[in-house]
């Protein structure tokens, strides 16, 4: 019995140890969405992402934890985040953001927290609509099934992007190409705005 307890995985501890991956993923996703015109994960459809109006960034743990919530300073889907870029230069990472994801004819609006990477307040902004039949019953069932399909597509898109990030993050290109590219872009942006 004691041997079985020793092999038990403490999932909460594991989750806390690996939470930095969600922070790095959201930070990378945000910066790449500002630089690039879109993503194409593993031969899938092109995905466009932009952070809408709010970003929460954080550094440190426990008593030394410091966080800041930043608002988009103007453009609807543009690069107007002076406080957020300054926070990134001070090693803060994105903890939560309100974003839009567009893939083919679908577009979602959602909040994405780094600790779970589970979409919150997800809304389908563009896509197929279900028409009412005479008694309304078929359309309610159809609308529910459509929501399930759309949510599954959304989580699949997030998983594909996360997979793309992890492959890059674990490759030699992360340190030699991607990280310098992101740092140079943030530094250039903050110099131009400052």
Distance between the termini: 62 Å
How many DSSP helices? 5
Largest sheet: 6 strands, antiparallel
Q: Portion of residues in helices?
A: 40-55%
**SSE series:** HHEEEHEEEHH
Number of strands: 6
- Principal-axes geometry comes out as globular
How many domains?
1
Strand pairing plus helix content: what structural class? alpha+beta
Cα gyration radius (Å): 19 Å
Q: Can you offer a commentary on this structure?
A:
This protein is α+β, with helices and mostly antiparallel strands. It has one domain (19-193). Helices cover 48% and strands 25% of the residues. The chain has helices at residues 2-6, 11-35, 82-89, 137-169, 172-193, and strands at 39-40, 46-59, 66-71, 93-103, 106-113, 120-126. α3 (82-89) packs across α5 (172-193).
Q: What is the compact description of this entry?
A:
The protein has helices at 2-6, 11-35, 82-89, 137-169, 172-193; strands at 39-40, 46-59, 66-71, 93-103, 106-113, 120-126.
What is the fold's blueprint, element by element?
Layout: H1 2-6, H2 11-35, E1 39-40, E2 46-59, E3 66-71, H3 82-89, E4 93-103, E5 106-113, E6 120-126, H4 137-169, H5 172-193
Antiparallel strand pairs: 1-2, 2-3, 2-4, 4-5, 5-6
